[in-house]
Design a protein that fits this description.
Number of helices: 13
Bound molecules: flavin-adenine dinucleotide
CATH class of one domain: Alpha Beta
Shape: globular
Order of helices and strands: HEHEEHHEHEHEHEEEEHEEEEHHEEEHHH
CATH superfamily of one domain: D-Amino Acid Oxidase, subunit A, domain 2
CATH architecture of one domain: 2-Layer Sandwich
Largest sheet: 9 strands, mixed
Structural class: alpha/beta
Length: about 475
């Protein structure tokens, strides 16, 4: 038996043992002691949080899904919907269930409406760029439909979102994108535009130069992924937590041998839903998927944003393409979740250097300070004396998976027959996974790419990897 490819050296990985320090930022399994997010802290009683954390893995399973985030959980759910027996599915998770980006994001379910068009068109052509944006609109509609159909308690709040332009330069960039998208035949029928005083009144941002508004929402992302896992487990699927897949070998008779610290599973089909850690098992991705850290904060509002003054819409508050803040306000408890862009000109060089990497064990205090200072600048009405209990509640970090062409990798890994991938969401998975994972399940169960309805540029191919360049990326849009 030979590994299908060169794998990283074995590393200590188990309960209570932190991963060793690493210099290679790519070929790396998830760190072993991640911080908790707001979402984790509010779901500690999830029944399957540490499922099978001590037991050995089964000797075989037809399907092994690696990763228990929304990609892995929804792939399992969709496979079962497509007729696969739950008992034939094993999910392996390196840490506790939903401990990756799906359990630590900023809560936005926010399709791009037009902004990314120019950047996508430059890389993929305008036809694909339109499909990418159309797909995001569809994802929002699908989540809305899914949550209602299955009565999923994930605090989903369908509403509208504002892209708030905080500088004339960014307002000009947005106007150009809007026009380019519309001219290329993109649908902007659902987008409203406001400027000057009207933009300021609608967004409550006195410095708003202009604002665009369209349908979007927010959710408790961990509850959504946990519901998907619980549902699949109820139908027979099994999950092993604290059980990383460490290597994959070619076995006999077209099987793959998935090695873990608690035994080896023989599988016909192996599905990589491993986000930024994908290259640990698929080294061909080591220069394609880059792990980037992102940070979010929960804020207990003062009176200015409480009661009937809670913000109904979500927002992306933008100084430039790369300097922005995302905001949702949870409708049930009023908590504000504030996300911060990775490329912030106000950060000191040391913090900028720390942006790439796998360390999701703590939040960065400089980013916390920037987020809280900027919140008060953008919303002067928040700049009041706080009572004990109001203000910053908590901060956390997580890892997003960037790709050089700004779109995810979905589909069969042709050079490794029987292996599949759904990863690389560029910090934008909540607006993409709800079509990608069901699409992947369709491919696995014999469907064609056309049946997935996904943009062709999402498809995994060796050619796509080799085309990978250092071209500038579209900034994540949450
Ligand atoms: C701070 C932050 C804010 C964000 N905000 C937003 C937002 O508001 N809106 C939005 O759309 N997106 C946002 N994102 C991005 C979004 O969360 C991700 O795109 C999405 O969750 C990716 O889901 P996933 O299932 O592919 O990956 P993950 O949720 O990361 O799941 C991958 C799982 O695989 C496990 N794993 C990896 N390797 C192995 C292995 N070898 N063996 C076993 N298990 C393994 C990991 O532990 C992890 O649990 C944000 C991300 C962060 C970090």
């Amino acid at each position: 038996m030979a590994p299908h490819s060169v794998s990283p050296p074995p590393r200590a990985f188990g309960h209570g043992t932190d991963s060793p320090p690493h210099t290679d930022t790519r070929n790396c399994l998830p760190r072993n002691a991640p911080c908790l997010s707001y979402w984790h802290r509010t779901t500690r009683a999830f029944k399957y949080l540490t499922a099978n954390a001590e037991s050995t893995v089964p000797a075989s399973s037809l399907y092994v899904i690696i990763g228990s985030g929304i990609s892995g959980a929804l792939t399992a759910f969709s496979l079962i919907e497509n007729g696969v027996k739950g008992e034939d599915i094993v999910i392996l998770e390196a840490r506790e269930a939903v401990s990756g980006a799906s359990g630590r994001n900023a809560g936005h379910v926010r399709p791009d409406a037009f902004r990314g068009f120019q950047a996508y068109a430059a890389t993929h052509g305008s036809e694909q760029a339109i499909k990418i944006i159309k797909n995001e609109k569809l994802v929002f509609e699908k989540i809305d439909e899914f949550v209602k159909k299955h009565n999923v308690h994930c605090d989903f709040h369908p509403t509208t979102t504002f892209d708030v332009c905080l500088t004339p330069e960014f307002a000009a960039y947005e106007a150009d994108s809007f026009t380019a998208f519309q001219r290329a035949g993109g649908d902007v029928g659902h987008v409203k535009f406001y400027q000057g005083e009207e933009a300021q009144r609608r967004t409550r941002v006195p410095d708003a130069v202009a604002a665009y508004e369209w349908p979007a929402g927010s959710s408790h992302p961990a509850k959504l992924a946990q519901w998907l896992l619980s549902n699949s487990i109820a139908k027979g699927a099994k999950m092993w937590t604290y059980c990383p897949a460490t290597q994959i070998f070619k076995g006999t008779q077209d099987h793959w041998e998935v090695q873990t610290p608690r035994g080896t599973i023989q599988a016909e089909k192996v599905i990589h839903c491993t986000n930024a850690s994908a290259a640990a098992l698929l080294p061909q991705l080591s220069s394609f998927i880059t792990p980037n850290k992102a940070q979010a904060h929960s804020v207990i509002p003062t009176r200015a944003f409480s009661g009937d003054k809670v913000l109904e819409s979500t927002m992306s508050l933008r100084y430039s393409m790369h300097h922005f803040y995302s905001l949702i306000q949870r409708q049930d408890d009023g908590t504000i979740i504030l996300g911060v862009s990775r490329a912030n000109p106000e950060m000191i060089a040391e913090t900028k250097d720390q942006i790439v990497g796998f360390d999701d064990s703590s939040a960065n205090s400089e980013i916390v300070e920037d987020a809280m200072r900027r919140f008060k600048i953008i919303f002067p009405e928040a700049n009041t004396k706080t009572r004990h209990g109001e203000g910053l509640d908590y901060a956390w970090t997580g890892i997003i998976a960037m790709t050089p062409d700004s779109v995810p990798l979905v589909g069969p890994i042709d050079e490794l027959p029987g292996q599949y991938i759904c990863a690389g969401f560029n910090g934008h998975g909540m607006a993409r996974i709800f079509t990608c994972a069901p699409g992947l399940a369709r491919l696995i169960t014999g469907g064609s790419w056309v049946e997935t309805g996904l943009p062709e540029c999402f498809q995994y191919s060796v050619e796509r990897l080799s085309k990978a360049s250092q071209k500038s990326k579209t900034e994540s849009a949450w």
